[in-house]
Amino acid sequence: NPPQGGGGEPLNLQKLDLSSNTRLTTRSLPLLSLAIQSYGALHSLNLAGCSSLLADVNFEMEWDAFVRAATGSRLQSLSLKNCSLNDDAVETLFEQLATTSASPLRHLDVSSNLDLTISALQTLVRHLPKMTLTRLNMYNTSMYNSNTAAGVDDGDDDGD
């Protein structure tokens, strides 16, 4: 049953801003998944700056459930800016977005996740034709620092 207000009516929460809550950890992901599923009217979730969200070494199961909840809900906007996401976490997210064609998610922010490399961009390019995103922020990552390692031409002809 959906959460109810003091008068017994369903809560009509549309925006939830939990940004900069560094105490939200991997153990918080099941509760966030439940909140996304329970608040049917929730359209926007801001987790920007929750840098401990994926701090656990074994976050895969909780992260997968969170991603499935987010992409299978009515969420239209999700900010995971500066949440310590890595390439594996973003790959899971992009793959789920590509396979959930009915997902209303249109705005995704994964910027300022310094562990994202060119591999995340390659995953995005592979899945983008199947996604319904209209806005994606991926700035301030390590993608540009890994160009040489990924075999991307840096435009420098002197062999360096």
Structure notes:
With 160 residues, this protein is of the alpha/beta class. The protein contains four helices and five strands; from the N terminus they run E-H-E-H-E-H-E-H-E. It has helices at 29-38, 60-71, 87-99, 118-127; strands at 15-17, 44-46, 77-79, 107-109, 135-137. Strands 1-2-3-4-5 form a five-stranded parallel β-sheet, with no helix packed on it. Helix 4 links the parallel strand 4 (107-109) and strand 5 (135-137). Helix 1 (29-38) runs parallel beside helix 2 and helix 2 (60-71) packs parallel to helix 3. The longest helix is centred in the middle third of the chain and has 13 residues, at 87-99. The protein starts with 14 loop residues before the first strand and ends in a 23-residue tail after the last strand. Mean pLDDT is 83; it is low at 146-160.
Explain briefly what this protein structure is.
With 160 residues, the chain is of the alpha/beta class.
Question: What structural class do helix, strand and pairing data support?
Answer: alpha/beta
Shape type: globular
Give the neighbour order of strands across the main sheet: 1-2-3-4-5
Q: Kindly report the average pLDDT value.
A: 83
Question: What distance separates the N and C termini?
Answer: 61 Å
Biggest pleated sheet: 5 strands, parallel
The total of beta strands comes to 5
| H and E order | EHEHEHEHE
Number of helices: 4
